[in-house]
Design brief:
Layout: E1 7-12, E2 18-24, H1 33-41, E3 46-53, H2 59-74, E4 78-82, H3 86-94, E5 102-104, H4 107-115
Parallel strand pairs: 2-3, 3-4, 4-5
Antiparallel strand pairs: 1-2
Length: about 120
């Protein structure tokens, strides 16, 4: 379905060594593969996932987020989530993965958190 398309914009952060993946659309089993590949391939010390435009996420999407978290933790890198909607946050709470992530309201806040 066209409305289930996930768009991923890969951009550099304002701080050296920072990468931002800006997602737009739901994160679902049918569409998360590009996001998953980009997150896994990231070797940046800090990866910021901007989820401001993600209205909902399914269990496969949650798995992709957890996979990104594990990948970054094992390598001693940082992962931050930005703009997580209440619906997505509720899904993270129900699946008991919320405690693994750092949440920020804006990319600027996540960047300043990375610099601290």
């Amino acid at each position: 379905m066209p409305q289930d398309r996930l768009y991923v914009e890969d951009i550099s952060g304002t701080i050296a060594g920072e990468r931002i993946l800006r997602l737009s659309g739901p994160v679902l089993l049918s569409n998360f593969f590009e996001f998953q590949s980009l997150a896994r391939a990231s070797s940046a010390p800090t990866l910021i996932l901007d989820l401001t435009q993600v209205p909902y996420i399914d269990s496969a999407g949650i798995g992709a987020l957890v996979g990104a978290y594990v990948n970054h933790q094992k390598a001693g890198r940082r992962l931050a989530l930005v703009g997580v909607t209440q619906r997505v946050r509720n899904t993270m709470q129900v699946t008991h993965v919320e405690q693994f992530f750092q949440f920020f309201d804006t990319v600027a806040a996540a960047e300043s958190g990375a610099a601290a």
